[in-house]
């Protein structure tokens, strides 16, 4: 009987610990590796959308172009977050534009 209570307490502590670890993982900011992985996924999606555009009928091309523009913007943003900005003008305000 006492052995069962000890096991129950140990199991409860293990569950509490696992829940605390899961919460910590959810609340921590993304790491460099997480961001790099996300940028790679976005690049793959961008390539797939571009390939779809080549084969798409004219009626679908406008929606695909819009998707490509959004994906390209997200890739640029991810690269800036990683410190891999390839265009020195990306982080500077454009003339005539209000932000």
Report on this structure:
The chain is elongated. It is built from three helices and no strands. The protein has 99 residues and is mainly alpha-helical. The chain has two domains: 29 residues; 61 residues.
Question: What tags apply to this protein structure?
Answer:
99 residues, mainly alpha, 3 helices
Span from first to last CA? 69 Å
Tell how many strands the DSSP assignment holds. 0
Number of domains: 2
The averaged pLDDT comes out at: 79
- Rounded to an integer in angstroms, the radius of gyration calculated over CA atoms is 23 Å
Q: Mind summarizing the main beta sheet?
A: none
Shape: elongated
Count of separate DSSP helical elements: 3
Helix content: over 70%
Secondary-structure map:
Elements: H1 2-27, H2 32-55, H3 58-82
Summarize the structure.
The protein has three helices and no strands. Helices cover 76% and strands 0% of the residues.
